[in-house]
Protein backbone atom coordinates (compact mmCIF):
# COMPACT_ATOMS: atom_id res chain seq x y z
CA UNK A 1 0.00 0.00 0.00
CA UNK A 2 1.35 3.35 -1.00
CA UNK A 3 1.45 5.90 1.71
CA UNK A 4 0.52 9.49 0.89
CA UNK A 5 1.86 11.96 3.46
CA UNK A 6 -0.81 13.86 5.45
CA UNK A 7 -3.65 11.35 4.95
CA UNK A 8 -4.73 9.03 7.74
CA UNK A 9 -5.87 5.55 6.85
CA UNK A 10 -7.54 4.75 10.18
CA UNK A 11 -11.22 3.80 10.09
CA UNK A 12 -13.55 5.95 12.14
CA UNK A 13 -15.53 3.96 14.65
CA UNK A 14 -19.35 3.97 14.57
CA UNK A 15 -19.61 5.05 10.93
CA UNK A 16 -21.08 2.48 8.60
CA UNK A 17 -20.11 2.60 5.00
CA UNK A 18 -22.26 1.31 2.14
CA UNK A 19 -20.90 0.12 -1.09
CA UNK A 20 -24.02 1.10 -3.07
CA UNK A 21 -25.88 4.44 -3.12
CA UNK A 22 -29.42 4.83 -1.72
CA UNK A 23 -32.27 4.08 -4.19
CA UNK A 24 -36.02 3.41 -4.23
CA UNK A 25 -37.09 -0.18 -4.13
CA UNK A 26 -39.72 -1.41 -6.57
CA UNK A 27 -42.34 -1.58 -3.81
CA UNK A 28 -41.68 2.03 -2.76
CA UNK A 29 -41.97 3.17 -6.37
CA UNK A 30 -45.30 1.36 -6.81
CA UNK A 31 -46.64 2.91 -3.59
CA UNK A 32 -45.68 6.42 -4.80
CA UNK A 33 -47.35 5.78 -8.19
CA UNK A 34 -50.51 4.51 -6.45
CA UNK A 35 -50.66 7.60 -4.21
CA UNK A 36 -50.23 9.92 -7.20
CA UNK A 37 -52.95 8.00 -9.06
CA UNK A 38 -55.36 8.37 -6.14
CA UNK A 39 -54.66 12.11 -5.88
CA UNK A 40 -55.29 12.58 -9.61
CA UNK A 41 -58.47 10.51 -9.27
CA UNK A 42 -59.67 12.76 -6.47
CA UNK A 43 -58.73 16.03 -8.18
CA UNK A 44 -60.04 15.27 -11.68
CA UNK A 45 -63.77 15.48 -10.77
CA UNK A 46 -63.11 18.75 -8.93
CA UNK A 47 -61.37 20.21 -11.99
CA UNK A 48 -64.24 19.05 -14.23
CA UNK A 49 -66.77 20.60 -11.85
CA UNK A 50 -64.88 23.90 -11.89
CA UNK A 51 -64.83 23.88 -15.70
CA UNK A 52 -68.56 23.16 -15.88
CA UNK A 53 -69.25 25.94 -13.37
CA UNK A 54 -67.29 28.33 -15.61
CA UNK A 55 -69.31 27.19 -18.65
CA UNK A 56 -72.60 27.69 -16.79
CA UNK A 57 -71.43 31.15 -15.72
CA UNK A 58 -70.69 31.95 -19.39
CA UNK A 59 -74.25 30.86 -20.30
CA UNK A 60 -75.63 33.20 -17.65
CA UNK A 61 -73.41 36.00 -18.93
CA UNK A 62 -74.66 35.40 -22.50
CA UNK A 63 -78.26 35.73 -21.32
CA UNK A 64 -77.39 38.90 -19.41
CA UNK A 65 -75.73 40.41 -22.50
CA UNK A 66 -78.71 39.45 -24.68
CA UNK A 67 -81.06 41.04 -22.14
CA UNK A 68 -78.98 44.23 -22.04
CA UNK A 69 -78.92 44.33 -25.85
CA UNK A 70 -82.73 44.05 -25.90
CA UNK A 71 -82.99 46.89 -23.36
CA UNK A 72 -80.57 49.02 -25.39
CA UNK A 73 -82.63 48.26 -28.50
CA UNK A 74 -85.76 49.43 -26.70
CA UNK A 75 -84.00 52.54 -25.43
CA UNK A 76 -82.72 53.45 -28.90
CA UNK A 77 -85.51 52.28 -31.22
CA UNK A 78 -88.37 52.73 -28.67
CA UNK A 79 -89.59 49.12 -28.84
CA UNK A 80 -88.18 45.68 -28.14
CA UNK A 81 -86.81 43.47 -30.93
CA UNK A 82 -89.59 41.55 -32.66
CA UNK A 83 -89.74 38.10 -34.18
CA UNK A 84 -89.30 39.24 -37.77
CA UNK A 85 -91.16 37.52 -40.59
CA UNK A 86 -90.40 33.94 -39.61
CA UNK A 87 -87.68 31.32 -40.06
CA UNK A 88 -87.58 31.68 -43.86
CA UNK A 89 -86.16 35.21 -43.64
CA UNK A 90 -82.90 36.79 -42.53
CA UNK A 91 -82.42 40.40 -41.54
CA UNK A 92 -81.81 43.21 -44.01
CA UNK A 93 -80.35 46.40 -42.58
CA UNK A 94 -81.86 48.41 -45.46
CA UNK A 95 -85.31 47.76 -44.02
CA UNK A 96 -84.62 49.37 -40.64
CA UNK A 97 -86.32 48.08 -37.50
CA UNK A 98 -89.91 47.24 -36.66
CA UNK A 99 -92.57 45.46 -38.67
CA UNK A 100 -90.71 45.98 -41.97
CA UNK A 101 -87.66 44.07 -40.69
CA UNK A 102 -87.66 40.40 -41.79
CA UNK A 103 -84.86 39.43 -39.36
CA UNK A 104 -85.79 38.17 -35.91
CA UNK A 105 -84.67 39.31 -32.48
CA UNK A 106 -81.18 37.79 -32.72
CA UNK A 107 -80.54 39.79 -35.90
CA UNK A 108 -82.03 42.99 -34.50
CA UNK A 109 -79.76 43.00 -31.43
CA UNK A 110 -76.53 42.55 -33.45
CA UNK A 111 -75.67 46.29 -33.40
CA UNK A 112 -76.06 46.25 -29.61
CA UNK A 113 -73.76 43.21 -29.29
CA UNK A 114 -70.84 44.86 -31.13
CA UNK A 115 -71.73 43.05 -34.37
CA UNK A 116 -72.51 46.05 -36.59
CA UNK A 117 -70.54 44.63 -39.55
CA UNK A 118 -72.59 41.42 -39.50
CA UNK A 119 -75.81 43.40 -39.09
CA UNK A 120 -74.96 45.45 -42.19
CA UNK A 121 -73.91 42.52 -44.40
CA UNK A 122 -77.31 42.32 -46.15
CA UNK A 123 -77.49 46.06 -46.70
CA UNK A 124 -76.85 47.09 -50.27
CA UNK A 125 -78.52 50.48 -50.07
CA UNK A 126 -81.55 49.31 -52.05
CA UNK A 127 -84.64 48.27 -50.09
CA UNK A 128 -86.22 46.65 -53.16
CA UNK A 129 -83.44 44.09 -53.78
CA UNK A 130 -82.41 41.00 -51.87
CA UNK A 131 -78.78 39.94 -51.61
CA UNK A 132 -79.27 36.16 -51.31
CA UNK A 133 -75.54 35.37 -51.14
CA UNK A 134 -75.08 37.77 -48.21
CA UNK A 135 -78.05 36.14 -46.49
CA UNK A 136 -76.32 32.77 -46.74
CA UNK A 137 -73.14 34.31 -45.28
CA UNK A 138 -75.19 35.68 -42.39
CA UNK A 139 -76.56 32.21 -41.66
CA UNK A 140 -73.08 30.68 -41.78
CA UNK A 141 -71.61 32.94 -39.10
CA UNK A 142 -71.65 31.26 -35.66
CA UNK A 143 -71.82 33.77 -32.81
CA UNK A 144 -70.43 32.83 -29.40
CA UNK A 145 -73.04 34.86 -27.50
CA UNK A 146 -75.82 32.71 -29.01
CA UNK A 147 -74.31 29.46 -27.69
CA UNK A 148 -74.20 28.03 -24.19
CA UNK A 149 -70.77 26.39 -23.73
CA UNK A 150 -72.38 23.74 -21.49
CA UNK A 151 -74.41 22.54 -24.44
CA UNK A 152 -72.21 22.96 -27.52
CA UNK A 153 -69.59 25.09 -29.20
CA UNK A 154 -70.39 27.71 -31.83
CA UNK A 155 -69.94 25.96 -35.18
CA UNK A 156 -71.81 25.14 -38.37
CA UNK A 157 -74.38 22.33 -38.41
CA UNK A 158 -75.76 20.36 -41.34
CA UNK A 159 -79.24 21.32 -42.45
CA UNK A 160 -81.76 20.78 -45.22
CA UNK A 161 -81.04 22.46 -48.56
CA UNK A 162 -84.27 21.42 -50.29
CA UNK A 163 -86.23 24.52 -49.29
CA UNK A 164 -85.14 28.07 -49.97
CA UNK A 165 -85.49 31.04 -47.71
CA UNK A 166 -87.49 34.14 -48.47
CA UNK A 167 -84.47 36.39 -48.98
CA UNK A 168 -81.53 33.98 -48.97
CA UNK A 169 -80.37 30.72 -50.49
CA UNK A 170 -80.35 28.10 -47.77
CA UNK A 171 -76.76 26.86 -47.30
CA UNK A 172 -75.89 23.21 -46.56
CA UNK A 173 -74.45 24.22 -43.19
CA UNK A 174 -75.59 27.00 -40.91
CA UNK A 175 -75.10 28.35 -37.42
CA UNK A 176 -77.60 27.71 -34.64
CA UNK A 177 -78.57 29.31 -31.36
CA UNK A 178 -79.20 27.85 -27.93
CA UNK A 179 -81.49 30.70 -26.95
CA UNK A 180 -85.03 31.56 -28.00
CA UNK A 181 -87.45 34.30 -27.09
CA UNK A 182 -91.20 34.74 -26.93
CA UNK A 183 -92.52 37.51 -29.13
CA UNK A 184 -96.19 37.26 -28.22
CA UNK A 185 -99.05 35.61 -30.08
CA UNK A 186 -99.29 37.80 -33.17
CA UNK A 187 -99.14 35.98 -36.48
CA UNK A 188 -97.38 37.12 -39.65
CA UNK A 189 -100.47 38.84 -41.04
CA UNK A 190 -100.96 40.76 -37.79
CA UNK A 191 -97.50 42.36 -37.59
CA UNK A 192 -98.62 45.53 -39.32
CA UNK A 193 -101.49 45.92 -36.85
CA UNK A 194 -99.19 46.19 -33.81
CA UNK A 195 -97.20 49.19 -35.07
CA UNK A 196 -100.09 51.48 -34.18
CA UNK A 197 -100.99 49.70 -30.94
Structure at a glance:
The protein contains 5 helices and 2 strands; from the N terminus they run ααααββα.
Helix content: 25-40%
Instruction: Report the major sheet.
Output: 2 strands, antiparallel
Query: What would you call the shape?
Result: elongated
Distance between the termini: 117 Å
Count of the separate structural domains = 1
Structural class: mainly alpha
Average pLDDT rating: 78
Strand content: under 5%
Per DSSP, the total helix count is 5
* Number of E strands: 2
Order of helices and strands: HHHHEEH
Order the strands across the largest sheet as they lie in space.
Answer: 1-2
Poorly predicted tracts of residues: 193-197
Rg, alpha carbons:
34 Å
Structure description:
- This protein has five helices and two strands.
- By secondary structure, it is mainly alpha-helical.
- The chain has a two-stranded antiparallel sheet.
- The model is unreliable at 193-197 (pLDDT under 50).
Short descriptors:
197 residues, mainly alpha, two-stranded antiparallel sheet, 5 helices, 2 strands
Q: Which helices and strands appear, and what pairs or packs with what?
A:
Elements: H1 26-77, H2 105-108, H3 116-119, H4 132-139, E1 156-158, E2 173-175, H5 191-194
Antiparallel strand pairs: 1-2
Amino acid sequence: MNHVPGISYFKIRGVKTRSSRAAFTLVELLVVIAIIGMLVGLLLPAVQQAREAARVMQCSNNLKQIGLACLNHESTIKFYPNSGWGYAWVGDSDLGMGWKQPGGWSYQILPFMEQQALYSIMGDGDMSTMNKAAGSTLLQTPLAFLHCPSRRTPKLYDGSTTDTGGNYTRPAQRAKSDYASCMGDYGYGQLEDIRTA
